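Bumping my old thread because nobody answered last time. Still need a sequence for this structure:
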């Protein structure tokens, strides 16, 4: 199990769409127990209880990808040394955009939404976002995420009772603008999700996927990992069979959390150009 070293001792966890930073509570506790400083800052204005945001989703409706990225960039720049950055779902997209800014000692996209360049979204991905994407007017709204929506997108490997309990504890309305920005990036010449996929001076990147994930199925995660093949920097990929999009509480979540940390600590200490002055080398995790 990864432990802090002189080179990396802090982890920044970035939550995704339809969630708040509470979704990281198990991972944060597990990493803190290993001696890491763990930061779980919310998206701008979303540092509230899920019930409060469901009652008044105004802070969610105002979210924009560029603002979210700058919010986390400012937090990371204030740290004494580059942290490990992990992001789930749309938080994984934010993590990739931070990576493109050369922020972080190692970055993990946990079932991450794709940056610009992945040309085909699977049907299950589109269905997961249908409550927002079916109406163009939702671009400017915070759209309710019902228990039924959660059941399909996150809770498909749970019992209905478990899924409903997880919805109650974690789920909030979805930021329409953020989902539209991400889903239609390939049609926007000025997309906020565009990166330099050939960048060789970035930190190591790990992309994980769940075999039963409806939001980011393995086919989408694999297509995303393939975008980075033109870079000589480290890109790893790991699929976890039988896992859904609910990485924060699905039974067996510990395996993925431990793998992500071990990979990131090793990559940051041995390969990261932001931490050590060593030419990056190509490596893939199986």
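Sorry it took so long. Here it is:
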């Amino acid at each position: 199990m990864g432990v802090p070293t002189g080179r990396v001792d802090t982890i920044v966890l970035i939550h995704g769409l339809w969630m708040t930073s509470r979704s990281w509570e198990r991972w944060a506790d597990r990493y803190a127990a290993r001696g890491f400083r763990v930061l779980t800052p919310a998206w701008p204005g979303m540092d509230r209880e899920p019930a409060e945001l469901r009652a008044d989703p105004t802070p969610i409706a105002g979210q924009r990808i560029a603002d979210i990225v700058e919010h986390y960039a400012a937090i990371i720049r204030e740290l004494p040394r580059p942290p490990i950055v992990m992001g789930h779902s749309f938080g994984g997209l934010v993590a990739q955009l931070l990576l493109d800014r050369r922020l972080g000692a190692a970055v993990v996209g946990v079932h991450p939404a794709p940056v610009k360049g992945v040309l085909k979204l699977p049907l299950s991905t589109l269905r997961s976002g249908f409550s927002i994407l079916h109406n163009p007017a939702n671009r400017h709204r915070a759209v309710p995420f019902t228990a039924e929506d959660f059941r399909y997108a996150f809770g498909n490997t749970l019992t209905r009772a478990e899924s409903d309990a997880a919805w109650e504890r974690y789920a909030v309305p979805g930021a329409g603008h953020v989902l539209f920005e991400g889903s239609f990036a390939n049609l926007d010449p000025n997309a906020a999700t565009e990166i330099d996929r050939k960048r060789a001076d970035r930190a190591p990147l790990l992309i994980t996927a769940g075999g039963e994930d409806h939001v980011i199925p393995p086919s989408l995660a694999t297509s995303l990992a393939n975008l980075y093949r033109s870079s000589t920097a480290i890109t790893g990929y790991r699929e976890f069979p039988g896992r859904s999009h609910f990485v924060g509480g699905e039974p067996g979540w510990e395996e993925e959390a431990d793998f992500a940390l071990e990979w990131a600590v090793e990559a940051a200490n041995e390969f990261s150009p932001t931490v050590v002055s060593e030419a990056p080398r190509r490596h893939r995790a199986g």
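The domain at 10-270 is CATH 3.40.50.1820 (Rossmann fold). Let me know if any region looks off to you.
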